[in-house]
Amino acid sequence: RSRSDTRLERTEKTDGR
């Protein structure tokens, strides 16, 4: 996984979606 992918995952979790 790329670092950007991890960042996107964290953003999604924060969004609560």
Condensed summary:
The protein is mostly helical and 17 residues long.
Overview of this protein structure:
By secondary structure, the chain is mostly helical. Helix content is 76%, strand content 0%. It is built from one helix and no strands. The termini are far apart.
SSE ordering? H
Q: Which percent bin holds the helix content?
A: over 70%
Distance between the termini: 20 Å
**Quantity of strands, as a count:** 0
If you average the pLDDT, what whole number results?
Answer: 69
Sketch the major β-sheet: none
Low-confidence segments: none
Strand proportion: under 5%
Characterize the overall form: elongated
Radius of gyration over all CA atoms, rounded: 8 Å
**Number of distinct helices:** 1
Structural class: mainly alpha
Secondary structure layout plus pairing:
Layout lengths: L2 H13 L2
Which descriptors apply to this entry?
17 residues, mainly alpha, 76% helix
